Amino acid sequence: MMERKAFIQTAALLATGATIAPLLKGYGTPVSNAPTQKLTLKKGLGFGMIEEDLSLLDKFKLVKDIGFDGIEFNSPVEIPLKELLAARDQTGIELPSVVNKDHWSKPLSDPDASVRQFTIDSVAKSLSEVKELGGDTVLVVPGVVNDKVPYEVAYKNALESVRKLIPHVEKTGMKIGLENVWNNFILSPVEAREFVDAIDHPLIGWYFDIGNILRYGWPEHWITTLNSRIVKLHAKEFSRDKMNNEGLWKGFDVDLLAGDNNWPVVMDALRKVDYKGGWITAEVKGGNGTYLKTIADQLDKIKAL
């Protein structure tokens, strides 16, 4: 019996070997046989990363000169919008997205309805601002779980709050991108997909942070599961070795392409889901023009993979 069983198993493997081999790549991630899409990406950075003592216009010029295509601002924006628009128009630098700045201190999941409403109003203003700036996406953290806010309470409140933003999304035509952060909330790609699908609106998707996931997962898995729900991308790096040996937050203390992201696999996954968000925006520590040029070059290498 054992010899017959071994023969059957061997024969089956030989018969299917030609099919199995192409399915494995990198970390063993299944790879589709469907033709991959060409991926066109523009490079962005956060405004706070520009650590040069320059005027607003000269900061825009610097960013343009070193190879970036766009700048992401926190919102509601403290700089008059007319100044941002003037700098945009004089340099050609785009303003594709903004990050709402109230979603951490006053989460959309807070048990207090007045706190939730404050941030709903704030995100509504961000939607109007990004439209005026010529962009299309507002980054929003959907909720925060802590010792005072149970998971189920946060989930219910976050869903309710995001749904209340639908009229503002429809009025402006702008997108909301929900971001994965270290908020003890929405910890798997399946849950992230189901959260967005429960909202069920074409202008509400996921602002996927490639580096944040490495603490507890693999970005290519999230990309495959979220698929067309991804509206924008943040790029950062993370080292599990540094996290384990030097402390949790030290994991981010590593250059792009020098951490645990398997960038060829990540980029392959983005091509296979036909990512159409158009941007990959660096969210790393800031520095002077020379340092930022290094970031731009690293993004170019990532785009070419």
Summarize this, please?
By secondary structure, the chain is an alpha/beta fold. 43% of the residues lie in helices and 13% in strands. Residues 1-33 have low confidence and may be disordered.
Walk me through what this model shows.
With 305 residues, the chain is of the alpha/beta class. Helices cover 43% and strands 13% of the residues. It has eleven helices and eight strands. The protein has an eight-stranded parallel barrel with strand order 1-2-3-4-5-6-7-8, surrounded by five helices. The chain starts with a helix and ends with a helix.
Features:
305 residues, alpha/beta, eight-stranded parallel barrel
Could you give the topology of this structure?
Elements: H1 2-20, E1 42-46, H2 56-65, E2 70-75, H3 81-91, E3 97-100, H4 113-132, E4 137-140, H5 151-164, H6 166-172, E5 175-179, H7 189-199, E6 204-209, H8 219-226, E7 230-235, H9 240-246, H10 263-272, E8 279-282, H11 289-303
Parallel strand pairs: 1-2, 1-8, 2-3, 3-4, 4-5, 5-6, 6-7, 7-8
Helix pairs in contact: 2-3, 7-8, 8-10
